[in-house]
Each structure stands twice: as structure tokens, then as C-alpha cells.
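for ur thesis appendix - Peptidase S8/S53 domain-containing protein. copy paste whatever u need, i formatted it the way the template wanted (i think)
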Amino acid sequence: MGLASASCPAQLHPAAEAPATAASANGIAATNNTQHMKAQQIHSGSTEGSRNAGSDSQGAEQQCRGNGDCNWQTWIVRFAEYKMLSEHKQALKKALAHLQQHWAWLERPNKAALQHPSDFALLSVAPLQLQVLRAALQQVSGFRDMHPDRRIRGLLNWQPEGELAAAFSNVQQQQQHHLALRTQPERLRMQQEPDVGRQLQRSLLADAEQQTKQQPAEQQQQQQQQQHQGPPPAAGSSSGVSPPADADEDADSIWTVSKPPGRLTTKPTIGLDPRNPADREDSLGREELRRSSRRRNLLSSSWQRLFGSSSGAADQQRQQQGQRKLGRSLTAAADAVTVLLEAGKLWDQGYSGKGIKVGVFDTGIREGHPHIRHIKERTNWTHQQSLSDGLGHGSFVAGVIGSQDTTCPGFAPDVELYTFKVFTDDQVSYTSWFLDAFNYAISCKLHVINLSIGGPDFLDAPFVEKVWEVTSNGLIMISAIGNDGPLYGTLNNPADQPDVIGVGGIDNDNNIAAFSSRGMTTWELPAGTGRIKPDVMAYAKDVTGSKITTGCRSLSGTSVASPVVAGAVCLLASTLPEERRWLLNPASMKQALVEGAFRLPQLNMHEQGNGRINLPASQAILANYTPRASLIPPAIHLADCPYMWPHCKQPLYAHALPVVLNATVVNGMANTGYFAGPPVYEGLDEGGKMLHVTFQYSEVLWPWSGYLAVYVQVSPAAEAFSGNATGRITFTITSPGQLGAESKDPQSSKVVVPLSAVIKPTPPREQRIVWDVLHSIKYPPGYVPRDNLDIKSDVLDWHGDHPYTNFHEAYDALRGAGFSVELLASPASCFDPRNYGGYLVLDAEEEWYKEEVAALTSAVKEHGMALVVFAEWYHEESLKQMKFFDDNTRSWWTPITGGSNVPALNELLAPHGVSLGERILQGSTSLGKHTLQVAYGSNIATFPAGGHLHVSHLTDVAGKGAGVPGNYAAFGVAPSGSGKVAVFSDTNCLDSSHNTGPCFEFLVALFQQLLLGKDAGLTPADKLQAAPFKAAGFTAAPQRRADVNFTQYSWVLQHPHACHMSAPCQFRQPPDCPAGDAWKQKHPKAAAGSSAASTGSSGSGDAAQQHEEQPLQEDVSNSQPVEEQQQQAAAKEAEKLQQLADDANKQQQQQQPDKASSSAAGGQGHHAQHFAKEQEQAQQGQRSAFISQAVTLATFICVAGVIGIVVLWSMRSSSNGAGRGKWGRRWGYAQVGRRSPSPLDV
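the 3d part is after this line
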């Protein structure tokens, strides 16, 4: 371990002036109101303790055998200061002398640990003494905290090269039966594969000996020195801990859960497996690529035929001139990624990455790789005794960044490459390996780091906080956003961190790659909203890169896109002269990439971030760059569709919940910054002055970034207003003097952010729905199992359960039907129910405040609101069966609740006479015209008289031996006071991540019936309950698990009841509404509904009319005869023309007085004359517009009349049915399926 081909100077690298409040001030979670960045210890236990254990651990483990406490685990013990490990070791030995038999020091024979100061140690600890040891460590001077050393597993589903090819082929044959278990409806199935790593590792270690013989003598000597310190155990070796014998019992049961080895990671970020239907791209996408390639070839050949080859010769001459400048010979195919991103424009200027140091954290690279010109240093941080790449992943990534090969050129062929082998060839790594490698990267003073890895666990505190430290030292980190698309809420860490440049993937036609993960970030949930990620997009499909030895290959994935951006960053960095390179830092480079990016049409901000990188534009920004602060997004135009989805789907209106946008502040001045004062909003027009904009923001921006949460609310005085709203947000960021700059004086940067929106009249309450987003528990604080129990490997529910993530299609369906949907991230007691027709609860795993239950009960019974609940399964005994043994933490994982928290939901539903049971239902049910798939939902156990209850033939799969079909209640609608309660047993059909059959139309129909009174067939007379219903065999409601401390996972139980910034300003504690009587009004006036309806088409109009709820109006108009609809449309057009004419007449009448007054006041100067002239020009323009519209309408009527006459003539009939003529055939009335004429016809 720790082999190296060169050495960086030993030096101390503190946390780059990290402020004392850095952990809480990073500013990632807007509106969270909790220290989300606080490292939460998810489970006790860790990885195999014997790994890298020296003589100290061997003696301790021999003594442990006497008392049976041999399940030792590896822990990362962190310190507040950097010291040599010998100092840390002596301090621990002194403080823990009385516990010396229960812990052992683990040696780390690598350069970072042996030659440099370190901020952590590895200890092997006996689990039974863990709490005692933790308490003793609290007394050690400089002790910070301790965390399990997590095992990270790559699991790349692609064909490796070299020594692993044969072994991998054998393993593939053993995996074929697993692929048969995959089913088409499941979009995110990751079935448990055999432990490839352990099988590959056995053959790999044998091949590693042969590799050792072929390496230089210096490296062999280093390996021998490592061996004298003690041979490290093989990867995956255990310290005596193994799952019980019954761990594989009932392997085919839905309750048997298994997690892939190591820290939870998502699908591979490179090399999608073509054998896997879930990973395979659709044939349409492939065909589009082929057609695009053919089009380019045809255009190229046509150009040569028409114009000869002179143009091509000129291009070739220019290219050769640029090549001679660089002393190289680079040519590339027309669709090469370097060509598509116009790297040649920078090459022609003589830039090639010279002087830039880049670190590739991957699987290593061979010595003297022919594609890489400058391999400065290769280091190994694993237990595998090799510096080379036996898998091919690291070689490919390095080639994309800096290859000089003409077939697969990289972006920066003169870059200085440092490779960090942090994954073994069997794709195993540990958090501690990354920590040491990151420390060494800081000592080497790298400029850029590429991480083509990722996973959803952002609470691995040592890893996440070390990334902060790396970037705070000025290193620019680029990371892949993940390959879990097209699902939303699937961003990977560390790419989702604001100090890291997260990269998504597109194809060569600038379409988003299907596999590219989508936003938003989920760190901030449930009380906040996510940030925009990825930062930028790059080409990620069929990109060519280097193979292990020589030659090129083509691969796809976001970890291909990541080195594309890393190479582009190296090339851009080299354009700055040496005396200006002090400007390079994570913030300045992100600003150059983001501000120069090309926004992709038809994609929203959570899909593309800021768009595809644009090298020439980013170069121009860097060339004139001065340190400053900025905001992502730089402008907040809420009506800008589709980019500003979901905000652009719905205009603003009075009496609504605040619209929340979580923006990222980027500070290019220094790694630490502060808001000089609270941000200020200024309205610039009538609509803008009706907005109340409030903020939350980072106390400290570190490293290089922070957050600005923007809350937008409309004044109650605007409940009948229709028009545009324009304003601006202004704030100032201050920072200390930047290292390297000529002046060390404090810096400041003023940021002005345009804000615009569309305001419409307040819709009536029957069109308004509140969507509860507070009562979902996010991953990774606890093990919340998947709602769909067919998914065994991807066992955790980690997509956010939010209308902007995995429920985005349900959100769009409600908006498409004309409902106004507002999100409530505060308790249910923090809004006025008189404004809303419905309250929606989906897949709630959280507890409920008693104040919420009382408030919602009153809202339904007294104010006539409809409470709609989509539940999930819950069965206590089955939950106990779902535990699984995690090789990462060496401990058992147990679900903290079911698919939903049914005991808590029953408390919410109890006042209405409804409760859910412990059945777990599967099958299909018909509700009106809708056929719904029930994929592991709960059953309705009790239901009141007077309600409509649907009992369906379903299967109960709860517990072992279950699966007997029966009749169970899955859906019901019941009156409760003046309101209603609707309950469906399953949420799966609304979850875009893994539904087996969507039910978005059913959701719309349900609200149309409950709120609008439109009969959707959901309450037929034969389903009416004359007496209270009680399910057969039901004796008691499900109970909470007594063996789970739910408080440590629950946001509700950790926070007292309070209304937060996501609530209307009238409900916040304390209220922060502007002064004035208007803001004291919490709901529309009595006539507001009719007023809004009557003024919907008035006002400034054009922008607002785009947001009218047309589907609701169409539902009414579709029931009218066609003639009446045409007459009404004609009448509306006539009224519109008359209105235009009246406006023109008024303008003409006003023109003469205006001219007279202007003439009388001729002595008032040039400004008055100029104003009169502009007004006259504006009036002339309006008259011209009116005439143009009138002519267009008249022309349309004439053309329509002519076409109608022609159609009627062409449809004339004769006695023998002929005579339709060519017009009849053109319009589809003739020659369709006619038989051949017979002699009788003649």
C-alpha cells in the first residue's frame, strides 16, 4: 500500500482558514432550520477491522478471543489539528491505556500518513467497548469525532480489460440467471449480483505478482518495504464477523433484502451494461444518433461534391499550423468530443493545458502510457500491490483529459497528470483511502481533481468534509452527477455539493442522456427545497478514450462527462498567464463555466443545470475576470418555461403559500465570505411592488459558496390583479484579501439579481390544492425501505418523495388539469384552509404534531376541505424480517418504518372514522373507468357509514406464508362534517421512480370529483356504506415499533411545533408581513372568487393568459354542442376586435389634446417635445397592430370559407358512389380499401 513513482514535498495543509462555523455555515440547506451537515452516525459498527492491522491489533485480537468479543470494527478517529501520526498515537495510548485490550492502532503505510501530518487515525475497536472508548476519547486533547470507515464498492457493469477480462467473463456467466429476474415496468431495478469483487480479487492478486516482476526496480523495492511491514489482508476479509447462518433463508421471499457490498452507491457512472434492460438505452435514441451521424456524413460529402476540397484544404492547413505551434499532431473525427466543444479554437492559440496539474482519483494507469505525455506521479492508496490499472476505468478517464493520441485526443495533452489509485481492480475502496489521498493531493498543490464516482450518501461526514477541505485549499473538483436518470432526485455525492462542479451528460445532438441523473438536491428536505444541479452538461455518449495499454475505445456515462469537463477546465486554466493564475479557484472556474454555458432548449434547470459547457465563451470570461460574487441562477424569471420548471408551471397570486427558490451564492473572491447585510428586494413596476420577498442566507460562505433562499409571496391587495411583476434583488458579499492578489485589503462584490413573475387573479378555492411535503423522511439518516417490495437490491427510498423529484409527473398532471398546487413545508397548522379545496398527503413516513391533526380536522369538518391520503404498506412482523446484514458497517440494518408510517397516519385519520390495517395488498382494482395496480399497499380497516368503499379481489402478502387472495378494501371516500376524506392504500402508482402502472389520471379525476363535483364514477350507489365498516379479522390498529428509536430519524420529533419561512408571512413566528391592513387579510374577500373569474382576461394580459386554467374550462365547454362552441368562439373574437377598435378610437381622441397641450407648452424644452413624439409613435404602432390583426382575422375567415366550400364540393356523392375526385382522395374519403371493380360494375 502506498506505492508511488514520485513524491510531493511534505508540508502542513490546514483547512484553508476554515471559519469556526464552517460546518453549519456552508449554506447548503436553505430553510432547513437544522444542522443538516452535522454528521449523523447512521449505524454502529464499520468495516473489517483486520484490514491493514499491524502488530498492535494482532495482540489485542488474540486476547479478545477469551471473552468472545472478536467482532472488531474499523473506525476513523478525527482530530482538530494536523500532527504526525506518531504524536496522535502517543496521545491515544496515554489516554486509553486502561482500555488497551479493547482497541488497536491500525498502521497506514502510505506517503500521506508516513511523511505528512494527518488529521485522523484508524482504530480497530471491540464493539462491546465502543461506548466506553468513545467516552474516553472525549477527554483526549484535540479529539474531534469518530465515524465508521465505510466500504465503497464500484460495481461497474462494463467489460474490463487486461487481466480481469477472463475472470469477468466467468462471473458474467454466473450472473445470467439474475438478469432473468428483471421486469420491464421497474425503472430502477438493481438486482443483487454475485460478489464479483471477491471472485475477481482472488485471480487478480495472483496476476499482481506477475505485474510486480515487470515493474522498475525502484517500485519492486518499495513493494518489498511494504511487505516487511506486514502483508495486508485481502479485500473483503473479515475480522471474525459474518452474518448468521439464516441470513440467506427464504432467499426468494419479498422480505429477504440484500444490499450490494460496501457503502451504498448507485448505478455505474461509466459503461452501461448492454445486457441489462434497465440500463440499455432505447432504440429510438440509438437510431437518432445513427441518423445524426449519417446526416453529418451526407452534408460533408455534398459540400465536397458542390464546392470541391479547397475549404477542407484550408481548414487542414490552419489545423496543421496550430499543430506546429503545439509541437504535436492532433486530428479528430467530426463528432469527437473535442471538436464538438471547439477545443481547437484554444489549441490554435497555443493553449494545451501546459503547467496545469490534474489529479485523477480512479483505478490507476500503466507506467509510460503512450497516450499521456506527462505522467508526473502515480500513487496507490489501496491494499493492492500495483500502481497500474487492471480494469481500464482510470486509463479511459485520464485519456479523455489529456490524451495526445490522434484517434482519441484529450483536451489538454500537455497537462501534468497525477494518478491516485483509490479503487482496486475489483472496484473496492474505503473512506480512509480517500482521506489520505485527498491530504496528499493538497500537499501536491494540484489545480484540478476529477472524481468519476458517486453515491447518494451525503452523510459520510469524513468524506464530505474532506471534500470541503480540498476545495477550500483552492483545488477545483469535478465530479459525475450519476447515472440514475431519467429519474428525478437521483443526484450523486460529491457532485451535489455546491463547492464541486457537478457534471451531467448529453448526447452528440445536445439531448440529455437518458442515464444522466436529474435534480433537485435532497440535502435540504423536508423543510427546505433543493438547489439547482448539475452545474453544467457535457457529452457523455459514445465518447472515445484510452485503453489500458494502447488504442482507443468508446464508452458512455456521466463519468465520461466528468473528465470531459475536467479536461476542458485544464485547457481553460492554461489560458491564464502564470502571473494571473492566482485567480484560479473552484468559484472562479465555476463562474466561467456556468456563465459561458449554452442553455439547452426544452430542458429544465433540474435536468441541465446551467447548460452545456462552451469553451470559447468561458475563455473570454476568464480573460477579463476579476474576483466577484454571483448567484446561480443569475436571474430569477419564474415564468421562463421550460427552464424554470416547476415554478413556471404556475403563476403567482394572492393568498398563496410562498414560492421558494434555493439559489447558490458563488464567491470568487476568497474561500470565506459574508453577507454585508440582509438582501434587499425592490419592485420596479406595479406588479413588482405587490410582491413580498423575504430571504434566508448563509451566515458564512465556505468554502467558496453559500445559499440564498428566496421566498416570494403576493400581497392580498392583488387578489384581482392580472399582469407582470418585475423587481430586483440586491446583496453584497464581503471577503478577506485573496492570496496571490497584489492587494490584501478586504474585498466586496455587489450582486444584482433580476426577478420577474406573472401574477393572476386568485383562483377559487375549488381549484386550489395544498401538497404536504413535510412528512417524508429522506435518505440517508435512516433505513426507510422501498415502497415497491419487488426491488430487493436498491433497498432504500432515497429519491426525496417530493413533487419536484419522484412525484414530478403527479405534480404536472394536476397542473395540466388546471389545479393550482402549492407546497407546504411547514406543519399543517400553518395555512388558512378557507383558501383551499384539497390537502394532499403522499407516502408519509413522518409523525404528525397534535396541532396538525387538530388543524386538519377543523379544516375538513368546519371549512369543507377534502383530505386526500395515499398510503403505503406497514406490517411490523414483516419489517423485522426485512433486516439485512451490511458488510460495510458489519451490522444489521433494520427498517425504521414501513412504506409509510401507518400508525401516525391512523392518528391523522381517526377523527374521521377511518383507519388503515396491516395487510399488504397486491393486485389490481377498478375504480370507475380507472384500473389501478396496487403494488404493496395497506388495507382500509375501518370506515364510517355514509361513505363509499371499494372492496377488491387482492392478495395479502404480509408475513411468511402469506399470499392467499381475498376481498380487501383499498379505496374509499367518506363525508366528514362539511368536508370529505379520501384514502387509497398505495402510492406506488404516483411514484415516477418505480411504479408498475401510473395512475395520474385517477389522481386528477379524484380531485375533480371532490373539489369540482364532476362525477368520475368513484362513488357509485352500490359502494355506499349503510353501516360502519370493519375489516374481517381486524382487532387492533398497527403499532409503532418499540425497538426503534424513531426520534433520531424524525424531523418532527426533533423540532418543536412552529411555522417556518415556507408558511405565509401571517403565520410565521413572529409574523413578518409588510405594514398595512391588506396584509392582515388571510383569505380572499367574499366576492374574490367571482371577481377573479370575471377579470381573468383583463389587465396587461398576454403573459398572464398563458397561465389560465384552460383544461378546467374545456371540461365544461366539451359538454356543449359543436355549433354552440363555434358561436361562442366567434362572439369572443368579435368582442376582442371591438375592444381593439375602442382602444384605438380612445387613443385617436386623446391624440389631439395631447398635441395641443404640447404646442402650448413649446417653451418647456426639448424633453416635452421628445416625450410627445415618442407617444405619437407608440400610438401609431398600436394602430398598425390593430389593422394588422384585423386583416389577419379577415384573411383567415376568407381562407376558411374557401376551404370549406372545396371540402363540401369534394364530398359530393353520385348515384353509384363515385365522383369524389382527387380532392376527396386527398382528404381521405376515397380509395381506402376499395375492392377491384367487377364486370358487373363495368
